[in-house]
Structures are given as structure tokens and as C-alpha cells.
Amino acid sequence: MKISEQWLRKWVNPVISAEAIGEQLTMAGLELDDLTKVAKDFTGVVVGEVLEVTQHPDADRLKVTKVNVGEGEPLQIVCGAPNVAVGIKAPVALIGAVLPENFKIKKGKLRGVESHGMLCGASEIDLEDEVDGLLILPDDAPVGMNIRDYLALDNHILDISITPNRGDCFSVRGIARELAVINQLPFALPFTDVTPTITSQDNQAVIVETSDCPRYYAQVVSNLHGSISSPNWIKQALIASGIRPRNLLVDVTNYVLLELGQPLHAFDADKIVGKIIVRHAKPQETLQLLNEQVIEMQGDELVIADEAGIIALAGIMGGLRTAVTDDTRRVVIESAFFKPLAVVGRARRFGLHTDASQRFERGVDFELPKLALNRAVSLLHEFGQGDIGQTTFVEDIAELPTRCNITVSISHISRLLGVDLAIETIIKILTSLEIKTIQQGDVLQCTPPSHRFDINIAEDLIEEIARIYGYNNIANQLPAFESNLYDNHTQNSLSAMKLALVSAGYFEAVSFSFSDNKVEQYFNHDNLAQPLALANPISSDLAVMRRTLLSSLLPCVSYNLNRQQTRIRLFETGLRFIGHDIASLQQIESLALVAVGTVNPEQPNNQGNMDFYDLKHDVETVIPRYILQQGNIHYQRSQQPFLHTGQSADIIWQNQVIGWLGQLHPQIASALDLPTVWVAQLDISALKAMYQQSLSISTPSKYPQVRRDIAVLVDKQIDAHALLTTIRNTGGALLKETWLFDVYEGDKLPTGKRSLAFALIWQDEKTTLADEIVNQTMQTIIETLQAQYQAVLRD
Fold this sequence. Notes:
Oligomer: single chain
Helix content: 25-40%
Number of strands: 38
């Protein structure tokens, strides 16, 4: 936001330079992007009055003028401007003047006629040209006065970056309020806030049909002339803020917007049909905006209408049908409070970005509409001699925002800031910010003002204290570091997973939670609902919430492949979203992997492409070794339609599917113009639970282990995992580990049979394990396998 230093100093005038003001605002969280003068440096230009104009004897387009510059005899100046005329006042560059770009004015002759200076247009003194010719000054401009002083060209323009949470600072008033607090200066309105005297019975009927507009003012001002020009000080303020002046009516609404932060709108009262109705739009209703764009409503937009249809998109832009023109004589000035959620996203939906929407989306002070209306109407009456009509006021107090009481303790403030501030200092800072503060022992009860929508919790108050006290006044010190393996297992486990994957050669990707609906359709597994569509997507390829992290990772694979990266290993941790609407939406924290290319980076004699078992190895790097050793993880053939049949598996833990892995289905890979892609996805909540289980630390047994191997002949259709489960359940408490280490199928075995070999590890933590105990348990296992699976022990 751009504002004039001169305008700002009318509100609060600290005895510091413009540069110092910028530094103070930056340190208070309102970063100064740029600080420039209204015009570049130049010298020797004064206000002049044209006394005489005659035709140049040898040039049709030149005039010979006599110009009074307030010093002795008038100067003879040759001028080619088409608008030069007797009686006008304009800037005059005297002999010896130095204009911008080091252009020096010297005595000279033009077509044989001496010229003692130059009459200037706006561009010659580094201002924007509004007309072709001279810069015409007001009739009351003092002749001979330095033009830099008259037009305040040494005035600075502050370009301030306003963060989204500080909607209260989108005005001169808001910035001035901050400066007053920082410099401990009084803050008050520089004008008198009075309700203008009613001089007309003219009024406008209003009906509010929605709670999204809990406060609405409308006031008629009549007998105006739309072509009336604004006073010079309003024009200068608008130009400094980057707004081109038009006429008094439009300029006043823009001026009050910038000054107070309250968007206003002026309707041509004679074009309004019947009552003004504040309501929600109906689907497929249309409105032609002031910029002549025609928009079609979806039904959730807040609009201003009359009995003939919509006349404005509330809080964003007015309609062309009721727009004011130079012929307008009666206007209705609207000043309202619209709830931020009723405006948010609607401007972007229609490709609009206005000063009004920028403020309403962030939240406008709900106590401001009346002050802004009074200010605007007073200016129209003072400079446009308009007759002031009746004010129509509609309010629903129950729907206005409430300022909740916030409790914060002095000890909490000291702990977060790392410095002990006197309680008097804290209360003084909060009070200066118009935060009502009551002390109750070590606790402060605070109520934020109506303009601070961003203060809702104790930490917000502490941030305000730090801002105003000054971050540079708080000594630097390291925070206390505390680490507890059990308390921080969630963070530690996530870091362990990432480190394991990085060690396996993967790179972490960070992407949007949005995805392309076309890509998302390839992963419509388990009959899930359609992905949740965004109301206002950033772009068409980020239009829905992703149901799987692959929707984000596969475009990253394409991006890398298109840049000659043939071996790709990426992983991402984040949320995926299941549900078609907000009410049913589930947010599931997940981990996903994608891999393309060879098993290892390029090296001699080792260029094999990745296969299922390589991917399985990579997936198991994120599973705690304790869980793997216990044999609690097993795999079953996956039925996911987007995975290659026979090259994929579901991951089972505690009888629950916690993820899947395998080759992306070739048809999908082909559709996405990808080679063979190996993918996996796991629920992080299950992985964290595994890490929690593996946190128990015990002393390794000093007694020896006993290993026994067993090979059995079983039917091919019997799942090896079923046999492993039976062995574990039968092996007793001393059986520490067991795993499948060999599978044999061949001509030497009976038809339909295969041989499965298992390793079994026993260990007693208290004594040396006797062979008799192991032998007895082994016999029990063999008998159980024979009984349940008709397994035959192989020699």
C-alpha cells in the first residue's frame, strides 16, 4: 500500500525522518518495500501566471507569451503547448533551472524570438501527464512560489507491505495508529467526527436478508454535479497512493477508503429500482460490472440488488447499471460491514482484485462504517454543495463479531519473550494498542479492539508486546533444549523414516496438497468418493485435494525425466484427503515413494533395473528393525487397480492393511508418458505406532542362541505366512525370531507341492537353553504343521 508521508503526518507527526519512519514500521512488522519522493530532484521552477499570448511571427505552432513569475518585469517565453492561454497558471522553469535528467534551462532563441525560461508540463517536473500540454495549476496558486513547495514534491511516498493478518493497517489511520504507539504520541482524528446535518428528506429503502451483512448504512446526497473537480489536497493524496483522480464523487470514496480503511460505494440513486436488497445471489444470475465484465453467479455470492436485479457484488465491485457518471445528480452512499468469509474467494473466482475486496477479505473494523459515511458525506457537502438526505440503517447486533476476553499471565509473557518486563510496561503497551487490560494479580484480562481481528489467543498478545517493546531490545539467547525419547517419539520417528530413505538414495519432495483431477482419476481405488474440488483453485492442474501422494509425486517424476534424469528416487510425507465434502473429509498422514531406473547409480557391471524386491527392501528401511525381527509384517497380493497385477502387494500389520507397494500399472504409466515406475504408500500413523512399540530398551541376553532349521513339503496354495504365524504361535516365549529362507519347486517334488525352509532362533535371557527344551518345542511345531497343513518334514 502506498501512502503519502505528508498525509501520514497530518495524523501523527513524530520528529523523525521519513527513512526513520520506514525503519520503525519495518521493525514493527509492516515492512517498507520502497521510499521515494513524489518527484525527482530539480531546481529553479516556480508558479507563473500567463499575462499575454501572441502568435510567433515565424512558426504556426509556437506562441510568444508574457509570464509573471513574481520578480520585476514579466518574462518573455516562447511556448508550443496547445493549452497555453491568458490567465492560466503553470510551472515556469527559470534561466539556470536544472530539471530531472540534468536538463538545464538557458536563455535562447526559438525561430529568432528570445525565450527566458520554459513553461512546463507535468512530465517536465517528473509528474504524470494528464493532458497534452502545460500543467494547469489552480487559480489560487501563489505566483513566484517554488513549485516543489506548492505541489509538495519533496514529500515522500511510503510503499508498505501489509501482511494478511493486519487488515487494520490498510489505511492511513491504521499506519498512523502504529506510529503513534511506537513513538508514544497521542492519537486522534485530524478532523471532527460529526453526523452531517440533514438538509433533505430524500432517503433510500433497504432490506437485508442475510446475516453475512450485520451492519449496513445507506445515505442519499442530492443536487451534486458529477463533473465537479476535487480539491488539490485530495488529488495529491490519491496520486501519491497510485490512484488517478476523476471527479469529486469518485475521489471522495477513494480518499475515505485510503484514509480510514472502509470501502464505500456510490450508486446513482436515479438508476436504483425500488428498494436496495442485500442478499445472496441465485445460481446463474448475471451482473455486468463497472469494468464491463459480465459474471454469472453460482449462488454463494453476497450481492447488493434492487427490485430489478443485482447492482453490485458486495465488498468487491459495483455494477454498470447503477454506476455514477458526470450526469449523476443524486447518489446513494453505501457503507457496510460484510463478514470476511462472505467475501473471501469471490473476487478470485471472477478474476477480480479490488481495493475493497483486499480489505473486506482480511476484515474491516465493524465499528467503522458510520465514521466513514459521515466523513464522505461531509466532504461531498463541503466541496460539492450536495444536499444531505436521510440515513437508512439496518443492523443485526447478534451477528456482529465479538471481542472475546483473553487471559495471559506475566510469567507466560516472560517465558516466551525470554526477558522480564515490568508489569507497568506491559500494561502500557497493551493499553496504547487500545487493548482493554485489567490486572488480576499475575494475570492480565485483555479485550482486543474492534479493528484487531488477528488477536485471538495469549500468544497474539505476547507478539504485540514484543513488537512494540522492540525486537532489538530483547537480548539474543539460545532457548533451553530438552529431549526425551519417549515424549518426542512422534517427531523422532518421522525423522528416522526420512533419514532411512535418504540413506537408501531417496530425495525428499515437498509439493502442494492439491492435484490435477485428470491424474487423480487414475487412482480411484477402493470405490472412494470423487476428490474434493477447490472452490477457487490456483490453476486448473491444482484443482482438487489429492487422495494419494502419488498425484503429487508422479508429475515430479515427469518433470525430472524431461530434464534427462533417468534414475529417480523421491519420497514425500504429508496429508492425503478422502471425502467429497468438508463434513466427510478425512485427512490421513501418509508416506509415499516413487522410483524409476536402475537399482544403483551408474557403475560398471551393475546396471540392473529395479524390481519388486528392491522396492520391498526400500520400504522396509522405514519399518523399525524390532518389528521386522518379530515377523509382524507380512504381505498379501494387492487388489489395487492402479498397480500391476502380480507385481504388487498390500502391507499387513496387526491384521490391518497399512499400505501397498508395487509397479504402477503399465496402462497408467503409458497414459502419463512414464516408463516403469515403482510406487509405495504407507500410513504414517501405523509407522509411528511401530516406533512407539520399539522404544522399550532391554539389556541383550548374555546366554547363547540356539538355531534350528526346518524344511517342510506343503501344497503350493498354502501361504508361507500362514506357516510362519503357526510356528510363532507354537514356538513359545523363548522363540525370538523366525523367517523363511528358502523356497524350492522342481521336478523332484510331487506335483502341486513345494518345499519351504524356515529358520528358528531360541534364546533364554536367564540361563543357558537346554537342547531338550528346544527339541521338545520343535517336535510340537512339526506335529502342529502336520495336523493343520498336512506338512511333511523333509530330511
